[in-house]
């Protein structure tokens, strides 16, 4: 949410020490010229003129305020705050100064002081809409969204044509999940100013959440036409197109991204890029742009204080997804399996309390489960420090609704990225990334800002996932009774045109086969069926499964014969699900972490022959397995044998590996050594007598 910068006060003959009439006249003449230059965008000349005024009269209130507004506009909040403080010391009755002072404090992440400054402005001028609006922005950043909404309501009540107030009100309503009301607020903003790109962008976000992708795409397209440089919107629109499998101009968009990211343009959120381009270099560049723009290091809490080592290492896991969610379905067994004689485990939850079965299981699994939805980032980081965490594990990275700012403040002496975000965060405050030799080979270390923790296997898995009881037939899932069933239950945004081209060639090569897919929108289903027709395949050979409860979803996977993976964003949890129920997974491995996850899983379960590295090899093997029932049956038999005898589903072994890594991290930190790459050696099983 962007604050509304108050208009600078008009020049006036106001001085706080005795000056000659000539000096006063010259000051006002210069000040008037400075305002003209300032409003014309000539900031360098305006800055020079304001300083000339202050050279004549160091206590000139207007010059201090205007120079403060200028340097704040230029991005120097600290210097602006000094100038506003000097202005307030001369005249504590000017509401606009307190408003702009509040903006500077907010930019410096001093939210409590910013609120005090806005409150001072409101006390002086209760009908100042900008003060209420900016107060709402700060409250929203503190996570106090209901209070923020009340502030925006007050702002638009005072000034009904306040476009920014309506926009911010829509953002608050969207955050609170009140989507129809949010859409109405966005529509109000557009009615007042149809040419404002941000309003159309915000409207698009709401429509996307309401599962109205066509309307959302139209809103994004309008916003980009009005402002092609609107930060990250190009990538947001492209991601939504991928969700509905609209591949119009796909390769042109990829070429644009490859050109614009190296130039440092804010063109796409780094998480969205992972599914589009298999380039660790571009992934790091995009992540660095995002980190520097959205989550730069924040020194508001100072350095993390040292504390005396304890018998138990304190590890905190941070997530907004402690509920029925892929991250939780993978990690819950790890939380339960941790060695409580050596570790004390904290859960820091800042997501909604769904009260579902997974949430309840997680609350019981942690030694300490803390619901922090109502806390600000700085409050959460301060609490983590107060609890003297040794290690903070970020399970979200740059995914949607993540709270990266907690880590920018330093919640713990050691900070680790694991599982939720499949790439480098390119942020100096993330010390380690958990991996294995497959997902991040040593030759790729240079693409990661973090030090790499190479475990014997990468992905943890919960072994208590229940498969629905009962006997299900293919017909129960809408599948034909005969014929080979290929499937992919990855999210639709992972399906690129090249991947789909390959799938259609496989279907053509295997007579009577079908492809079983998951799609969450009618638009995606329609586009995929049209895509099949365009490639000469009967659209009836694409079968779509709906969202069902987890146990039924696992049972449904058993109806398929072979899981076909996507590139450049592999299956993660979905591949584990398939392997758990005995369904072989065929993957094509790439260069980036996201493109190598399924290969890691297959190595961990002892099926490396299902890893391919070229599209031709991928299609040839898929076709061969479908045409050779004996070979396919042999793969399934080995999978059944390996399922509980190899590392992939051995959660206690994984817990021992990651605890070894945690011990090494802490030992280095306590010895005053910087983070370094860590290799955890596999446990050698003693042979049975």
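Q: What amino acid sequence fits the structure above?
A:
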């Amino acid at each position: 949410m962007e604050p509304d910068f108050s208009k600078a006060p008009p020049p006036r003959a106001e001085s706080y020490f005795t000056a000659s009439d000539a000096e006063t006249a010259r000051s006002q003449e210069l000040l008037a010229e400075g305002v003209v230059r300032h409003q014309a965008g000539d900031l360098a000349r305006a800055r020079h003129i304001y300083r000339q005024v202050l050279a004549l009269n160091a206590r000139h209130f207007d010059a201090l305020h205007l120079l403060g507004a200028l340097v704040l506009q230029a991005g120097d909040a600290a210097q602006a705050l000094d100038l506003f403080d000097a202005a307030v010391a001369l005249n504590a009755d000017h509401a606009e100064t307190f408003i702009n002072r509040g903006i500077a404090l907010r930019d410096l992440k001093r939210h409590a002081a910013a609120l005090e400054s806005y409150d001072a402005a409101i006390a002086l001028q209760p009908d100042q809409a900008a003060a209420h609006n900016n107060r709402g922005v700060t409250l929203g950043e503190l996570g106090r969204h209901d209070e923020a909404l009340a502030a925006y309501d007050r702002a638009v009540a005072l000034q009904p044509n306040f476009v920014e107030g309506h926009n911010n009100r829509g953002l608050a309503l969207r955050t609170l999940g009140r989507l129809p009301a949010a859409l109405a607020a966005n529509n109000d903003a557009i009615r007042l100013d149809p040419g404002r790109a941000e309003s159309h962008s915000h409207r698009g976000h709401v429509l996307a959440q309401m599962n109205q992708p066509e309307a959302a795409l139209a809103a994004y397209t309008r916003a980009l036409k009005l402002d092609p440089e609107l930060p990250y919107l190009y990538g947001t629109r492209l991601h939504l197109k991928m969700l509905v499998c609209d591949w119009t101009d796909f390769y042109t968009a990829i070429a644009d991204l490859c050109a614009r990211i190296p130039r440092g343009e804010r063109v796409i959120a780094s998480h969205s890029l992972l599914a589009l381009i298999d380039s660790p270099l571009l992934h790091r560049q995009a992540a660095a742009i995002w980190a520097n723009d959205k989550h730069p290091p924040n020194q508001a809490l100072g350095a993390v204080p040292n504390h005396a080592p304890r018998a138990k290492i304190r590890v905190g896991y941070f997530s907004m997804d402690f509920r029925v969610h892929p991250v939780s379905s993978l990690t819950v067994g790890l939380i339960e399996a941790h060695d409580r004689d050596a570790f004390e485990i904290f859960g820091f939850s800042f997501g909604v309390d769904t009260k579902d079965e997974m949430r309840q299981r997680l609350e019981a699994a942690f030694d300490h489960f803390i619901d922090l939805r109502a806390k600000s980032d700085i409050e959460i980081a301060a609490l983590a420090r107060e609890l003297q965490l040794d290690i903070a594990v970020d399970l979200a990275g740059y995914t949607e609704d993540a709270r990266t700012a907690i880590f920018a403040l330093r919640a713990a002496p050691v900070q680790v990225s694991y599982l939720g975000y499949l790439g480098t965060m390119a942020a100096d405050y993330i010390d380690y990334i958990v991996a294995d030799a497959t997902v991040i080979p040593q030759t790729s270390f240079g693409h990661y800002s973090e030090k790499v923790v190479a475990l014997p296997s990468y992905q943890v898995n919960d072994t208590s996932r229940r498969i629905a009881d009962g006997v299900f037939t293919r017909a129960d899932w809408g599948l034909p009774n005969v014929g080979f069933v290929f499937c992919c239950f990855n999210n639709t945004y992972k399906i690129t045109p090249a991947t789909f081209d390959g799938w259609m060639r496989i279907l053509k090569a295997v007579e009577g086969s079908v492809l079983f897919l998951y799609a969450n929108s009618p638009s995606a289903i329609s586009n995929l069926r049209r895509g099949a027709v365009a490639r000469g395949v009967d659209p009836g050979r694409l079968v779509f499964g709906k969202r069902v409860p987890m146990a039924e979803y696992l049972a449904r996977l058993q109806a398929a014969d072979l899981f076909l993976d996507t590139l450049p964003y592999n299956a993660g949890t979905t591949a584990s699900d398939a392997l758990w129920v005995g369904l072989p997974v065929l993957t094509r491995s790439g260069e980036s972490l996201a493109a190598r996850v399924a290969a890691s899983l297959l190595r961990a379960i002892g099926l490396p022959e299902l890893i391919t590295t070229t599209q031709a090899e991928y299609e040839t093997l898929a076709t061969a397995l479908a045409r050779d029932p004996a070979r396919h049956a042999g793969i399934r038999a080995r999978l059944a044998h390996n399922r509980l005898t190899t590392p992939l589903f051995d959660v206690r072994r994984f817990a021992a590996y990651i605890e070894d890594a945690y011990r090494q991290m802490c030992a280095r930190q306590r010895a005053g050594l910087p983070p370094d790459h860590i290799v955890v050696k596999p446990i050698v099983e003693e042979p049975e007598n």
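Q: And what stands out in the fold?
A: The longest strand covers residues 313-319.
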